[in-house]
Amino acid sequence: MSNFGDKEQREQDSTAREHVNQPNVPEGRMDSNKAAGHNSHPDFEKVQGSRPDWRDLKWNFTKTVDPNWKLGQGGNDGGESLKKEHVEIDPYQEGRPATSNYKLLISGIVPRPIGFVSTRSKDGNTNLAPYSYTQVVNHDPPILVVGCTGGFDNAKDSLRNLLETGECVINIVSEHFIEAANATSINAPYGVSEWSLTGLHPAPCKTVKASRVKEAVFSVEGKLLDTKEFESRATPGKKTGVLAIIEGTRFWVREDAINEDRNLIDPAILRPMSRLGGITFGRTTEGMELPRPQFDEQTKSEEAKKLIKPKTEGQ
Hints:
Layout: H1 14-20, H2 32-36, H3 44-49, E1 60-61, H4 98-108, E2 112-113, E3 115-120, E4 126-131, E5 134-139, E6 142-149, H5 157-165, E7 167-172, H6 178-183, H7 194-198, E8 202-203, E9 212-213, E10 218-231, E11 239-253, H8 267-270, E12 273-275, E13 281-283, E14 286-287, H9 295-298, H10 302-305
Parallel strand pairs: 1-14
Antiparallel strand pairs: 2-12, 3-4, 3-7, 5-6, 6-11, 7-10, 8-9, 10-11, 12-13
C-alpha cells in the first residue's frame, strides 16, 4: 500500500521511519500519514465543507498571455518578476531535514502526472498504488520512469512485485475516479485488495499479467528495463529511493479519446489529475498553443537582427 501524496515521504521522514520500521508490525497497520504529519488539516471535513462545490469545467483553448510577444521582450509581466529577490537553499545545510527538500520539490516541480501503478507478484498477489514520481522520458522505445521510496531491502509492494516479475501497468488518473485512486493509499493490512476496497475494475492486458484499470482513459503496459538505487547524502549507507526504468509494451486508450490516426489523446476526455504540493491535486481544464519558432523566419526584421549576438560569460 502507498500513502497517496505521501509515497515519496514515508521513508524520508525520520518520525515516519520510527513507525514504519517497528518490528512485527505489518505494512499498513501503522498510520504513516499521521506519523509523517502530511494531512495538514486537523479537521479536513470541516475545511472541505467550507469550500465551493466541484465545478464541471469544460476543456477549452485560450490565447496566450501576450499574443503579440516578440523576441527580446523577456517575461510577459512587464518586469514585475525582476523586482523580487531569491532565497538560496542548500539541500544539505546542517540541520535541514530531508523532508524539507521533499516538501520543497513536490510543491515546486508541479504539476506532476500521477502514475497509477498496477502490479502482480509471481504468486498472484496484486497491488495498485499511485506514484507522483512518474514521467515519460523517451518514445522510441517508449520509456517511462517511476520513483519509489526506500531501497531494495525494504521495497514496498509495487516495487517488490515489479522486481519479482518485471511487469506492471501505468494508468493515468482522471477526474472521474480521483477519489477511488486516492483510496488505494489507505493504510490497510497487507493482503487486502485495493481493487475491492475502491470499487475499481481490473481489465486484462496483452503483454503483462498485471491488470489495467478499466476506468482509466489511458494505460501503458510495461516491462522493467533497469533500476537505480539511491543513497542518502546526509546519512551515508541509508538507501532512500529506487528509480525504475520501464519500457512500454502496449497502449490502451478509450475509444472516444483517441483520434483516427491513433496518435493523439483528447484532453477533454482524458481530463488528467496532477499532483501539486502537500495533499493538493490539480486539474487540467484549459490549454493554449504556441508554435515552435523558426530562427530564419523570426529574425527577418532589422529589430530582431540586433538581438543576434554571440553567447557570453554569465548567461
